[in-house]
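Technical annex, item 7. During the second reporting period the consortium partners agreed on a shared format for inverse folding records so that results from different sites could be compared directly. Each record opens with the tokenized structure and is followed by the designed sequence. A conforming record, contributed by the partner at site C, is shown below for reference.
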């Protein structure tokens, strides 16, 4: 019983560190955030942090995983509820239109922030970033192929080209909106994305 409670307490502490550090890493940068920064935002000592993580890089990886899942779980929910492939693609437009404030509160899009932040000095974080981009692309590709099988499109759609446009419009809009504080940049890009989706539909 004691061992079980000890394990539970340890897992809770680890969870608290990740959640309390989430915005810090996203705003300050996954490479620039220091252990001292984590101490300040969590109220824990360096010993407590290292008692749960082997180093700062491990904290960064876990925080990135948390931030990515936190944001994209909302998108996945809309995609799963969509009645058809068109609805699945439109889910991205709807999510960012209705939840742009959430992205701002998080300190920006974690995928965009990490992709800009990392370089060859942190191969693990870079690899995780690439993995999540591929996960996102796989989801969009599935929707495109599903639409093709159902005869929803009025033309042949290259999944890779479509994903490049979708990701570019969303991430570009998020970047401009976050940098300037003007959400219209994001909304204009979402309008373009919606037009693009409608243009391929029958």
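Designed sequence (site C submission):
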């Amino acid at each position: 019983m004691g061992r079980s409670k000890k394990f539970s307490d340890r897992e809770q502490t680890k969870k608290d560190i990740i959640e309390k550090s989430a915005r810090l890493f996203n705003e300050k940068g996954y490479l620039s955030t220091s252990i001292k920064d984590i101490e300040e935002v969590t109220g824990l000592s360096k010993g407590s942090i290292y008692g749960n993580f082997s180093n700062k890089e491990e904290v960064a990886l876990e925080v990135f995983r948390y931030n990515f899942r936190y944001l994209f779980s909302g998108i996945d929910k809309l995609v799963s509820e969509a009645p058809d492939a068109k609805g699945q693609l439109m889910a991205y437009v709807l999510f960012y239109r209705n939840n742009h404030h959430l992205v701002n509160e998080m300190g920006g899009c974690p995928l965009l922030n990490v992709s800009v932040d990392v370089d060859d000095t942190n191969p693990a974080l870079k690899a995780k970033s690439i993995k999540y981009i591929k996960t996102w692309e796989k989801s969009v590709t599935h929707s495109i192929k599903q639409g093709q099988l159902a005869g929803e499109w009025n033309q042949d759609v290259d999944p890779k080209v479509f994903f490049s446009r979708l990701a570019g419009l969303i991430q570009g809009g998020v970047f401009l909106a976050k940098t300037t504080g003007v959400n219209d940049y994001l909304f204009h890009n979402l309008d373009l994305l919606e037009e693009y989706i409608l243009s391929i539909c029958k």
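The chain has nine helices and no strands. The radius of gyration is 19 Å. All partners now use this format for quarterly exchanges.
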